[in-house]
Structure to design on (156 residues):
């Protein structure tokens, strides 16, 4: 309130001190109305700020919930992916028993060496070793590097 009355008084001083012909000064009643109008606006602004703070708080809560859901979804996806690789590893283990060259050819033809690495990583070591003997050397090199990264990551 002090700020508002001070501002109004300051404005009145400026308007009368410029050497301009004096215009009709606002009456006390007009000043009181203006002060009330400004106080009302101030209250409206305070209310808007409070509402905005509440909305912001709700948004932050929703953002936190979404982050938790996203984390759960990623974990579930990873779990499903691990199960898939385990199943594929069993398929390739059987294929190694039947025809290791054919199994190695199929692994070598995979476009993504990461998938091949995860499949081999989930195989029994003896079967994986047999399979690696027949895999294309360039692909085998990529697979070995990726498996090393997987093992290092799991140690942490």
């Amino acid at each position: 309130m002090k700020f508002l009355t001070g501002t109004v008084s300051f404005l009145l001083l400026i308007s009368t001190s410029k050497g301009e012909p004096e215009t009709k000064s606002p009456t006390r009643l007009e000043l009181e109305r203006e002060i009330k109008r400004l106080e009302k606006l101030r209250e409206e602004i305070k209310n808007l700020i409070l509402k905005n703070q509440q909305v912001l708080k709700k948004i932050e809560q929703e953002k936190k919930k979404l982050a938790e859901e996203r984390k759960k979804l990623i974990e579930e996806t990873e779990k499903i992916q691990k199960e898939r690789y385990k199943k594929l590893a069993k398929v390739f283990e059987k294929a190694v028993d039947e025809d290791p060259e054919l199994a190695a050819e199929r692994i070598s033809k995979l476009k993504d060496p990461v998938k091949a690495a995860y499949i081999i990583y989930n195989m029994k070591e003896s079967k994986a070793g047999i399979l690696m003997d027949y895999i294309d050397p360039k692909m085998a090199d990529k697979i070995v590097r990726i498996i090393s990264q997987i093992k290092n990551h799991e140690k942490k």
